[in-house]
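# step 3/5: fold
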Amino acid sequence: MNRIVSFIFLFFFIQSLGLKGQEVLMIKEAVEIALENNYDIRLSKNDFLIAQQNVSYGNAGMLPSVTGNFTQNNSLQNSTQVQATGDTRSLNNAKNNNMNYGVSIGWTIFDGLGMFSRYDQLKELEKQGDFQFKQVVITRVSDVIATYYTLVEQQNLLNAIDSSIIISKERLEIAENRFSIGKVSRLEVLNVQVNLNTDESNRLRQADVVKNLKINLNSLLARDLLIDFVTVEEFEFDESLQLATLFDQASTQNLDLQIIAINKRIAELELKNVQANRYPTVRLNTGYNFSESESSLGFVSSSTGRGLTYGITASINIFDGFNQRRNERIAKIQVDNADLLIRQQKLLVETSIATAYQTYQTNIALVVLEEKNENIARQNLHITLEKYRIGSISTVEFRDAQENFINAVSRFNSAKLQAKLSEVAIKELIGQIAL
């Protein structure tokens, strides 16, 4: 048993040497890096900023428009004029110049209150952009957490394979010693060597899995893909989750539900906007203009003018081929659809939470069971190793115990990962991610 302790100590000592110089990446730190660097999060944030900029009175059509105008027309013509007296006047290359410039102002002061509906729509679109940004954040943070804990699981499995290799090397040493004194045949030594080679082959494959997961995590963090790091070895579960509480939280915090509720409000405002077309549109117009003209041939050789123009324009739709009625009916149907989508989405969310919660409870129970199995397999391996040293069991029996231990470690780590992933899925559904 002392030799077993020595091997375990040696294993962890070797592991610690391999970790020197590597970054220890904590889950909280990984999430912080993702929030700052992840491209999807940054793009979604910019979309939200665009929605914020669009909320303005001018974009809703509430403010007047001011336009500067300038026009210059010039011509050269061969002209002939016959006057009322019968006289004829002719001029080749007669010049005619006309120039107009000024400022005009137009302001829609009434459009059936449609401008107010449009402004409210812009504010709702801003809220929608905010919730969509939060949705992207939660989704990407969930991806980071899932990838991180998957890496923890696979790293722990790699550690177990490393410990198994150490034991296989000791088996090979024992088998060679026995062969040298004639207690076992060369066949047994070769079998042990094959087992060791299998373990080392498995380690290469598992190390490849770990490296690829690190690359994937670095990609989510939007940093150098070749940055090496180590993760924590253990993690905890939130065992306080209750189904009724989760339903209540989802009803107020689920982002899909909130986005669909905003879509209904936008549809209602669109209906008001369409209904506004039944009313007249009143627009004020004013401006100050300058004009100047020159003519080489004519009664007036030049003229100038300047002055204020003003007026009012009113228009109303009298008949448009029943399109107004059709548009209003469509808008009402869209409002009804938005209400149906809210109910449908609520059912989908509750269904997802219920199934995820059931999976979560099953995985928590599996964690407890597989932890016991791992402890039993570990004890069995230690006992088997001692029996193998004294020659009371065969190589095949020892190999079975060794493989049982690796399988038990794999199942235990897989159960922990699935429990954590189901926990993360539940919290994503209720719109909150806690580390």
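# step 4/5: annotate
The longest strand covers residues 88-110.
# step 5/5: archive (pending)
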